[in-house]
Design brief:
alpha+beta, 10 helices, binds oxidized coenzyme A, elongated, eight-stranded antiparallel β-sheet, single chain, seven-stranded mixed β-sheet, 539 residues
């Protein structure tokens, strides 16, 4: 039998916002499971399932404005007997929330109420648990201050939580914390003394027999603090600093997992921390811990950048994230060394210029890259250790008798490395065509797995972009990669005078386990000579 679960009694508040949807269609739920979290400017509250069953539809989304009685989730009730009369009409299905923000004070606690903070003695203020409605089993889940700490009127002192709602209790008045009377985990009641402050200025009047009268007599300076709301329930500003913006379920999850919420970045509306943020944080910590465990590298500490200025969270594309993992793995596993050199490509560039018309006729763009790939194939044949991988124990070379050259392509989604198969067997025209085709495919995200597999050596060309040299990261399990920066015309001494020459910067990163420095120097010199005298490319 289907049943709609609706927004329950939310006291005097007309409209609240849905800030978290905890279920999706198809989810099996138990009675009491949170379905959505709603929030006003004063309170956040979970709307629980009153029945067990399966969610058939979620009728609201994050950001929706809802009122008491609005349906939020449709549920197919588990084990419902179809012969039973319908459980309840829609409005009758509203359950009382475990805590109602408008509920009256329990009579026994009424005399102890002392919010906003009241003067206990000259210069001293007592901050107590304010009106917590009908909530029972309220515990302190966070103590945000310690003795000696200076606080402003709206600084958070303590967060208390019932099983369904959480409440932040601010100082209410600027001052210095004298004493903290409760610890995290302590059960509290309305009126429980939390913190004693020594007020810095504009102290409210001593403890009132008739609070409203005393407030009225306050000097002007104290009025804002004295009339400020006693507590802000999950104030929605994702403000920097000590305020943590998260609902009870999220706080509970964080406590269960031992996560300090202050270290978690919220991705929910207005920076609210949702359950997925806590889970993502745990995953990142585990990944960091695993890396630290295997490499002994201490993880980079997480910083709450919001403390220093506005921030924005942007998720990484799948391609970029995968690339980041590969680069990191390679950097950590392979001892990298980079050998720099310059090739005099003056004649190559002159020759390339003569091909412009033919290139236009063929509809192909001919850039230095095709010549570089061609030259690399020659060098790889001359120096087989560069066209190899190491076996797992790094005791043997796996020499490859095929020459598949990958080249890095910069795409909006991230870096990808398509591979030109049997590049050694291809001429400069074919290589140019294939570079253009694969680069286009990469930018349109149409590369298949096969297009990116089997590489034996890679080239990363930043020549069109700029730079005089860089340190490319080896595309493991390959053992070397050639970085190419921007060619420039420079004066070169020919023995008698300076002559203008076009010089192409080459940066070869190699795995120092597989290749020693002398070999790398010879490889790059060989490559440089080939590019300087392209007639040798036809030999
Ligand atoms: N010096 C000076 N100019 C160069 C050059 C160099 N080394 N290499 C290329 N150029 C010129 C080209 O000749 C072309 O100019 P013309 O049209 O006047 O001939 C212009 O720069 C643009 O070239 P291109 O980028 O279209 O073509 P390409 O063959 O040089 O490169 C590709 C293709 C796919 C490699 C490139 O577009 C690209 O994505 N590069 C970025 C690679 C990258 O991000 N590497 C870093 C990875 S991290 O290690």
């Amino acid at each position: 039998m289907a049943q709609d679960i609706r927004i329950p009694d939310i006291g005097d508040i007309d409209q609240v916002e849905v800030v978290e949807v905890c279920v999706a269609a198809g989810d099996a739920i138990a009675a009491g499971d949170p379905l959505v979290v709603i929030e006003s400017d004063k309170a956040s509250m979970e709307v629980p399932a009153e029945v067990a069953g399966t969610v058939t539809a979620v009728l609201v989304q994050v950001g929706d404005s809802v009122a008491e009685g609005d349906p939020v989730v449709s549920v197919e009730v588990a084990g419902a007997d179809p012969s039973e009369p319908a459980l309840a009409s829609a409005s009758e299905t509203i359950t009382e929330p475990a805590s109602s923000v408008s509920a009256d004070l329990p009579a026994a606690a009424a005399e102890e109420v002392s919010a906003p903070p009241v003067a206990a003695s000259a210069g001293t203020l007592e901050v107590r648990v304010p009106d917590i409605g009908e909530a029972t089993d309220v515990v302190v889940i966070e103590v945000a201050v310690e003795p000696g700490q200076q606080v402003a009127a709206d600084d958070l002192l303590v967060v208390v939580e019932s099983d369904k709602a959480s409440m932040e209790i601010p100082a209410g008045h600027a001052g210095t914390v004298q004493e903290v009377h409760i610890a995290e985990g302590a059960g509290v009641l309305e009126g429980t003394l939390l913190v004693t402050l020594s007020a810095s200025a504009g102290l409210p009047a001593p403890a009132p027999a008739e609070p409203s009268a005393d407030v009225a007599e306050e000097p002007q300076a104290a009025a804002p603090a004295a009339t400020a709301p006693p507590a802000s329930l999950q104030a929605p500003a994702a403000s920097a600093g000590s305020k943590i913006y998260a609902g009870p379920a999220v706080r509970r999850l964080a406590r269960e997992l031992g996560v300090e919420l202050a270290r978690v970045s919220g991705t929910g509306s207005r920076g609210r921390i949702v359950k997925d943020d806590v889970k993502a944080f745990v995953k990142s910590q585990l990944a960091g811990g695993a890396a630290a465990a295997t490499t002994g590298i201490p993880p980079v500490p997480e910083v709450d950048f919001a403390k220093f200025g506005p921030i924005e969270l942007e998720s990484m594309s799948r391609v970029r994230a995968a690339g980041a993992t590969n680069l990191h793995r390679s950097w950590l596993n392979l001892p990298h060394v980079t050998q720099h050199d310059e090739a005099d490509v003056t004649e190559l560039e002159e020759f390339r210029a003569t091909l412009k018309d033919e290139a236009a006729r063929r509809g192909v763009k001919i850039t230095p890259l095709a010549f570089i790939i061609k030259a690399c194939c020659y060098a790889l044949k001359e120096f087989p250790h560069f066209n190899a991988s190491l076996d797992a124990a790094a005791q043997n070379f796996i020499l490859k008798r095929y020459y598949h050259v990958g080249f890095a392509v910069d795409t909006p989604e991230g870096l990808v490395v398509p591979v030109i198969k049997d590049a050694d067997a291809k001429g400069v025209w074919d290589l140019s065509e294939e570079v253009a085709e694969l680069a286009e495919k990469a930018r349109q995200q149409r590369l298949g797995l096969g297009d990116m597999q089997g590489g034996t050596f890679s080239v990363s060309s930043l020549g069109a972009i700029g730079g005089t040299g860089f340190t490319p990261i080896i595309n493991a399990p390959e053992v070397a990669i050639l970085g190419v920066a921007r060619l420039a015309t420079r004066p070169v001494w020919d023995g008698e005078r300076f002559v203008p020459r076009k010089l192409l910067p080459l940066s070869l990163s190699y795995d120092h386990r597989a290749i020693n420095g002398a070999e790398a120097g010879r490889f790059v010199s060989f490559l440089s000579e080939l590019l300087s005298d392209i007639r040798r490319l036809s030999l």
